[in-house]
């Protein structure tokens, strides 16, 4: 058996003390440009600027004639150390530089979402959630839906799943449409299931909304109702948002009787807007 190559051995290295990659002043991960004293104690660029007038090292008090100097070797080292995303079990294959790990985690779209069913602890990506909703719970699902295009839904009481492709076809969206009995009819509300986005990670990102419409034609007159409302995005880690805080589209008893178990026929459209 051939011995492992040096490169293979290096790939299996374990970092015992991650603090060695942190700034010695602010204790945040070091990223270029990095500076050091004559002995080799390092600090980040922002802390170097704050200590520009210092005449000795912040650690060893060695004289600082000429100030802190660039540590090109340390810069190369921190750029070469890659960390797997903690969302790797949910499909993320990205291995950012150690100093970029936390920003990546905040924006990672593979962060897990949760099943809203009580007593169900399933956690997974939106792709696995879709399979869990339809196979594990048997919730009805409307597929092949494209954003901004009208489609037909047959909604039953409880959870209804909508599998959506966004405008450019690059991303799939997962919507849950809930139907619950109310005194005057059936209330319909919705959420978009997706990982949270970190503020400022994307200068333009989409918000989602839902347009619902039903009508009941008759010989003499007809009943028709149409509403457009924004849809909250959530990873459901805290369960479903409070129903009182969500817009609820009411289908009155004149359309669906209280004892009627047939699905509610609704025309719908999922639309997007850029914030």
Automatic annotation (TrEMBL):
Belongs to the SINA (Seven in absentia) family. Pathway: Protein modification; protein ubiquitination. This is RING-type E3 ubiquitin transferase. GO terms for cellular component: cytoplasm. Residues 80-138 form the SIAH-type domain. One of its GO terms (molecular function) is ubiquitin protein ligase activity. It comes from the Eukaryota. Keywords: Metal-binding, Transferase, Ubl conjugation pathway, Zinc, Zinc-finger.
